[in-house]
């Protein structure tokens, strides 16, 4: 693959705790991931993005990193990570890891040194220590300031275990330059940058804390390092609805791509989807940056559940956890949406389990929930555990081949119908749809452009460079297919030659 493989790649997101457990302790690990590489090859993805695998007290699912240059023992060892990278490469699968620069962990050496060194020390200057707390609230709920025994307070935009790093300090810059090199030297093909718009803080630590101009200096310097390594891809987690501000991250000397959260958050509505797609293309094309198409990740409710609700949009501030869903409807729409996302020009992200059509698990008992959103909301917002339940691989009952032990979050009994094993044998399954679609996509889709076809106000239809036409019916009635010679794939059965509601077809 070329140096710009990522422009049209299908990237599979692995949440390692929940992917596959190799040692039977109920937690996914590198042994499990390595053993399932053939599955990822068969699925047909070009790359995996692995959410944090570093040593971590797990106050936030690993996004509280105690050591950026090692692997958490629950997952394995650094040597095993290197073997994994080599084995993935041998299968032509690229490896992207998660780098978390906005905050570290109270268990990190730096934070321990800061506590020991006391107020006014250079060690405290790596974080944001103050004599008085500020007024910001944590993104997970509660105050963003926590007091330490000597009376000072430190800033944490997320959980108290995630102290924010001070990006006005050159030492912090140097540290992350070294972390990037550490992993690039070990062969990783790119990094996903966590909370990428939050690093720079306003003077006085008041007012807006997102998207300050200084953050771009960080990414310019990271891009220089990536370029030295032949263009390892830099992917930003940038939640910014303002397209002009978003586009700044994709300037030619900054990040290569960023997640398209407008697409993820968009309701299942033809006009809204079309406008998000057009806006996305208008933002990216002038920059020469490929768009990304993201339907879900480890922070949002599963697609099947979201699309079966009365309100199909996504809103971080109002998670709508537990809101009832028509899963049959959601399932049809998730299939149609998968073909739509895979047909659009650019890269596509697939969060583990979406290829199995897993629904959100709403009934995890409170005492088993691990998301800090649950605790910090005073047990009023369940949070993100419901999309992080360990994958069902095979068999008729939990743990469904996930591993020998009891999974760290309980799997629903009725997932027996959703195992990889059950779906492999079923030509009508979600997994078969993904496998078939990814195969076609590798040949005919990915990077490039599209031309819209007008096919009525509630139908999205466009033709790609290869001549493939993708048509999605978002109306309430069946519609005729546009002229074609061949039907390559449909997300559901046709209705006497017509394309039913909530269905996508790929035509040539
Ligand atoms: C990102 C991650 C999320 C994490 C947060 C803090 O949004 O995707 O899982 O909780 O950053 O690191």
Write the SSE topology.
Elements: E1 10-14, H1 30-35, H2 37-43, E2 47-50, H3 78-90, E3 94-99, H4 109-117, E4 129-130, E5 145-147, E6 153-155, H5 170-185, E7 190-193, H6 215-228, E8 233-236, H7 243-248, E9 257-258, H8 261-265, H9 270-284, E10 292-294, H10 303-307, H11 327-343, E11 347-351, H12 372-376, H13 420-424, H14 430-444, E12 450-452, E13 459-464, E14 469-473, E15 479-480, E16 487-490, E17 498-499, E18 503-507
What does this structure look like?
By secondary structure, the chain is of the alpha/beta class. The radius of gyration is 23 Å and the shape is globular. It has three domains: 5-103 and 183-438, Glycosidases (TIM Barrel, Alpha-Beta Barrel), CATH 3.20.20; 109-155, Alpha-Beta Complex (Oligo-1,6-glucosidase, domain 2), CATH 3.90.400.10; 450-507, Immunoglobulin-like, CATH 2.60.40. It has 14 helices and 18 strands. Helix 5 (170-185) packs parallel to helix 6 (215-228) and helix 11 (327-343) packs parallel to helix 14 (430-444). The strands form four sheets. Strands 9-8-7-3-2-1-11-10 form an eight-stranded parallel sheet. The chain binds alpha-D-glucopyranose. Alpha-D-glucopyranose is lined by residues 60-61, 63, 100, 158, 194-195, 237, 298-299.
């Amino acid at each position: 693959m070329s140096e710009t493989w990522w422009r049209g790649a299908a990237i599979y997101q692995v949440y390692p705790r929940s992917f596959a457990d190799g040692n039977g302790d109920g937690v996914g690990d590198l042994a499990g991931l390595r053993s399932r590489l053939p599955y990822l090859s068969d699925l047909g993805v070009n790359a995996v993005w692995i959410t944090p695998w570093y040593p971590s007290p797990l106050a936030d699912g690993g996004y509280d990193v105690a050591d950026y240059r090692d692997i958490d023992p629950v997952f394995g060892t650094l040597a095993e990570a290197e073997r994994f990278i080599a084995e993935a490469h041998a299968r032509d699968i690229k490896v992207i890891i998660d780098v978390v620069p906005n905050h570290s962990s109270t268990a990190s050496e730096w934070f321990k040194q800061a506590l020991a060194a006391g107020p006014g020390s250079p060690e405290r200057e790596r974080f944001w220590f103050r004599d008085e707390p500020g007024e910001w609230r944590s993104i997970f709920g509660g105050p963003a300031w926590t007091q330490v025994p000597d009376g000072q307070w430190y800033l944490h935009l997320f959980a108290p275990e995630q102290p924010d790093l001070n990006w006005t300090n050159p030492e912090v810059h140097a540290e992350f330059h070294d972390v990037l090199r550490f992993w690039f030297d070990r062969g990783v093909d790119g990094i996903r940058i966590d909370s990428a718009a939050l690093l720079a803080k306003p003077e006085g630590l008041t007012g807006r804390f997102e998207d300050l101009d200084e953050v771009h200096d960080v990414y310019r310097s990271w891009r220089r390092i990536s370029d030295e390594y032949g263009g390892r891809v830099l992917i930003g987690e940038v939640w910014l609805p303002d397209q002009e501000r978003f586009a700044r991250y994709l300037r030619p000397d900054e990040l290569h791509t960023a997640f398209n959260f407008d697409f993820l958050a968009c309701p299942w509505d033809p006009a809204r989807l079309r406008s998000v797609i057009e806006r996305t293309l208008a933002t990216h094309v002038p920059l020469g940056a490929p768009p990304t198409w993201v339907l879900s990740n480890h922070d949002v409710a599963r697609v099947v559940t979201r699309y079966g609700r009365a309100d199909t949009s996504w809103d971080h501030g109002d998670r709508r956890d537990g809101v009832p869903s028509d899963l049959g409807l959601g399932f049809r729409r998730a299939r149609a949406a998968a073909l739509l996302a895979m047909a659009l020009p650019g890269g596509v992200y697939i969060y583990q389990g979406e290829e199995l059509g897993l629904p959100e698990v709403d009934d995890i008992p409170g005492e088993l929930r691990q998301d800090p959103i649950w605790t910090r909301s005073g047990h009023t917002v369940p949070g993100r555990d419901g999309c992080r339940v360990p994958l069902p691989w095979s068999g008729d009952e939990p743990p469904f081949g996930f591993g020998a032990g009891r999974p760290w979050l309980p799997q629903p009994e009725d997932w027996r119908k959703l195992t990889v094993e059950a779906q492999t044998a079923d030509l009508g399954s979600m997994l078969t749809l993904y496998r078939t679609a990814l195969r076609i996509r590798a040949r005919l889709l990915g990077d490039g452009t599209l031309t819209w076809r007008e096919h009525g106000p509630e139908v999205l239809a466009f033709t790609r460079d290869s001549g493939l036409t993708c048509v999605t019916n978002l109306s309430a009635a069946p519609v005729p297919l546009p002229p074609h010679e061949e039907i390559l794939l449909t997300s559901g059965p046709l209705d006497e030659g017509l394309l039913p509601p909530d269905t996508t077809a790929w035509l040539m």
